[in-house]
Write a structure and sequence with these properties.
The complex is a heterodimer of chains A (399) and B (324).
Chain A (H helix, E strand, L loop, with lengths): L2 H27 L4 H7 L8 H8 L7 H15 L1 H7 L5 H13 L1 H6 L5 H16 L10 H15 L7 H9 L5 H20 L2 H12 L6 H16 L2 H13 L2 H17 L9 H15 L4 H18 L8 H10 L6 E5 L5 H5 L4 E3 L8 E6 L10 E3 L6 E5 L1
Parallel strand pairs in A: 1-2, 1-3
Antiparallel strand pairs in A: 3-5, 4-5
Chain B lengths: L1 E7 L6 H11 L5 E7 L6 H10 L4 E5 L6 H11 L4 E4 L11 H9 L4 E5 L6 E2 L4 H15 L14 E4 H7 L10 H8 L6 E5 L1 E2 L11 H42 L1 H5 L1 H18 L6 E6 L3 E8 L6 E8 L3 E4 L2
Parallel strand pairs in B: 1-2, 1-4, 2-3, 5-8, 6-9
Antiparallel strand pairs in B: 4-7, 5-7, 10-11, 11-12, 12-13
The chains are: A mainly alpha (399), B alpha/beta (324).
Chain lengths: 399, 324
């Protein structure tokens, strides 16, 4: 291989890694959020066990959070290489634009480095899109096995991977693969993940909760939220190009997945799912640009950057340490040791940040506890407890 | 030109009459006949050489130290010079009158043309019911490994185009009697296959070579083809089966929770009461087994480092106990 080419690839990889590190650093400022804590502590809902089990293996590491933020951001950022390869029939300037779209879309900037499953699912979706643009592999004997394994891994990473089912089945039906391939590699993984869901009632309960918790939100807000995530997913420019490409080519795999992702976001009301649109928009954009072979690049870059900047400004990541982190950093400065009681509804980040066992507050537990954290005002705290000053929540320590 | 392979083993009685029938059937068609003999004790190879003296289209390959119908056919195909390669039995059960149709089918663009007993117009003469049943079972098993839908994958009477054979030659593992099955299991999917009705005649001379050893070889060939064709399917299915069993057992232990609303309500209320009383988070509790008189669960206090885990049994009559 040509030395200059190797050097240029290495420089690009280094640059991407620096960008991934910046994204991870930004996410780390706010501390671990409740959803992230669920994965870091291997709490058995709402997602399947594959990735959270791997994360949990490191929960004794002091730098666990930082290591995984860097890794998640690295995977998301370096996935741009797959965008580059998928678009290899396009002129270089268009390939660069699509990679820039992947890297600097609002969804990537907002969620790169977050220890949540939606960026991983988006990467897996991008792999399905990339395989679609590699038709020369579709008839190879190992293709269906590789696709089935990726599909199984995706489903066991996060349930939302099922939203890419139209794309997976289209890949299996391409070149008229046998019915056996479709059943073995397409349907069996879905059956297995459904079976897993039955082993954990908490998962099904969380689905029901998620589906019903937003029923008091007005209908127009639901549509507005969907439209907003559609635009932030691809920073408008990729969203428009992608949608146009999918519709123009009547690509049922992309359109089917787009519909499922849209419906899922419509009912779930979670910001971080906008990134699930991004691989579909990339795929649709490639289809469109394969026909057009041109694009007004300056306005496109301008829209990409300005929409991302505006989105980050309007919906910024958390840029101050969480209350849980502040409280426990303060408690660690004392020589305190013992159970923590928390009064009020609290997220899993409190379990994560605490070096001591955490329980829900009940007056009967006071004897065995060393600290009480009152997220709602506490009453009837005995005189043997003193309040810790200077914290945004009420914290009591035994004298 | 048609190259017809005649694998022989103790077929000295049938050979002269067979050659005459072949000459009649292929009159006007350029052809050669390659007799591949596995060093027959009845010296079929010697008779074949004598017959070839007056028949320039006949060649004889005497194989010494090698046995097996499938390998004999592959050797014959490899030595052939024609662009259409055909094989038939030498015991008189295959009618040479079908040869022009097989040849024409390949010339018209088929990749393989098969004399088929099981298409409309085809039949089998004089078999006992047991033989019919055995053939049906073997044919049904053979369908599992064929890449193309064929009614009679076990036929020993077929023609294949030379380029197709050349493509798959190195992938063939010729053993046992069923070379067509090996070819069909190795050919690409969506190959052009044509089946031509064959009336499978009763053997009038010599003795059948179908015995227990041959049947064992057939099943070994089946397994070998299945593995070569579907190894990755098998690996994936086996892994999925293991996962399915493990998850199935766990899901079954909770089936009352999903099927009985009363049990579901009882378990939910009991768990809420337990977690409230102990100050536990519901997410730290994992149900393991639900029964009518109670349930079992694991309490795992999630935190950094090693998690404390404890198993509990709850009985509606006796309350909470640690697992025995």
């Amino acid at each position: 291989m040509d030395y200059r080419r190797v050097r240029s690839y290495a420089l690009v990889a280094f640059g991407l890694q620096c960008y991934a590190s910046v994204l991870a650093w930004v996410q780390s400022i706010g501390g671990v959020l409740t959803d992230e804590a669920k994965y870091l502590l291997n709490i058995p809902y709402p997602q399947p066990p594959l990735v959270r089990w791997v994360l949990h293996l490191s929960d004794g590491w002091v730098a666990q959070e930082w290591v995984w933020r860097i890794l998640f951001a690295t995977l998301l950022v370096h996935a741009a290489w797959f965008v580059w390869d998928a678009a290899r029939t396009l002129p270089r300037r268009l390939r660069l634009f699509l990679c820039a779209g992947w890297l600097f879309a609002a969804s990537t900037v907002l969620w790169g480095g977050a220890i949540i499953m939606s960026p991983l699912t988006a990467i897996q979706g991008l792999l399905f899109v990339w395989l679609f643009f590699r038709p020369e592999w579709h008839q190879k004997p190992l293709f269906a096995f590789f696709l089935g394994t990726l599909w199984l891994v995706s489903l066991y990473t996060a349930y939302q991977a099922v939203l890419y089912m139209p794309l997976v089945f289209l890949l299996l039906f391409f070149h008229r693969r046998s019915l056996v391939d479709v059943v073995v590699y397409g349907c069996i993984p879905i059956g297995l993940v459904f079976l897993y869901a039955l082993t954990n009632p908490l998962i099904l309960a969380s689905f029901v909760n998620a589906g019903t918790e937003n029923t008091d939100i007005p209908l127009w807000w639901w549509f507005y939220f969907l439209l907003r995530t559609l635009f932030t997913g691809g920073s408008i420019v990729l969203s428009v190009l992608g949608l146009a490409g999918m519709v123009r080519h009547r690509h049922w795999g992309f359109l089917g997945s787009l519909f499922l992702v849209g419906f899922f976001i419509f009912i779930s009301f979670r910001d971080y799912y906008d990134i699930l649109f991004l691989p579909l928009f990339v795929g649709g954009s490639i289809l469109l640009l394969q026909r057009w072979q041109t694009l007004p690049l300056v306005p496109s870059y301008a829209v990409l950057v300005s929409v991302t900047a505006m989105t980050v400004w309007l919906l910024p990541p958390v840029l101050s340490p969480s209350t849980a982190r502040m409280v426990f950093q303060r408690l660690e400065e004392t020589s305190l040791s013992g159970e923590i009681l928390i009064q009020g509804s609290f997220g899993h980040q409190w379990q994560y940040e605490s070096a001591w066992p955490v329980r829900k507050y009940t007056p009967e537990f006071l004897d065995s506890a060393a600290t009480i954290i009152c997220l709602n005002p506490c009453d009837q705290i005995p005189n043997s407890w003193r309040q810790v000053p200077g914290l945004s929540v009420e914290v009591w320590m035994s004298r | 030109m048609l190259s017809l392979i005649l694998p022989t083993f103790n077929e000295a009685e049938s050979l002269p009459e067979l050659l005459e029938e072949i000459e009649t059937a292929l009159h006007g068609t350029p052809f050669e006949v390659i007799i591949v003999d596995d060093d027959s004790p009845d010296r079929t190879w010697e008779l074949a050489e004598t017959l070839s003296e007056n028949r320039p289209y006949v060649r004889v390959l005497r194989r010494m130290g090698r046995r097996g119908l499938s390998s004999a056919v592959v050797e014959g195909f490899s030595a052939a010079q024609g662009d259409v390669l055909a094989v038939m039995d030498s015991d008189g059960q295959h009618d040479p009158a079908l040869l022009p149709r097989l040849y024409a089918a390949i010339q018209s663009g088929a990749d393989i043309a098969i004399g088929s007993r099981y298409v409309s117009g085809g039949s089998v003469e004089g078999w006992a019911h047991a033989r019919h049943f055995a053939s049906f079972v073997a044919t049904a098993c053979a369908w599992l490994v064929c890449t193309n839908r064929v009614r009679d994958p076990m036929s020993g009477y077929f023609a294949v185009s030379r380029p197709v054979f050349a493509d798959i030659r190195d992938k063939l593992r010729p053993r046992g009697f069923k070379i067509l099955l090996e070819i069909l299991g190795t050919m690409p999917r969506r190959s052009r296959v044509q089946e031509i009705p064959l009336i499978f005649r009763l053997r009038t001379r010599g003795s059948s070579k179908l015995n227990a050893c041959v049947q064992t070889q057939f099943f070994r060939q089946m397994l070998s083809l299945l593995w070569r064709r579907s190894a990755w399917h098998i690996v994936f299915v086996c892994f999925s089966a293991v996962l399915c069993v493990l998850l199935g057992i766990r899901a079954w232990n909770l089936h009352l929770l999903y099927l009985d609303a009363g049990v579901r309500q009882q378990v939910r209320q009991s768990l809420e009461s337990i977690t409230e009383g102990k100050g536990w988070l519901m997410s730290d509790v994992a149900l393991r087994h639900v029964r009518r008189d109670g349930f079992r669960f694991l309490y795992r206090r999630h935190g950094r480092g090693e998690d404390h885990t404890q198993c509990y049994d709850f009985f509606y009559s006796d309350g909470l106990q640690t697992c025995t």
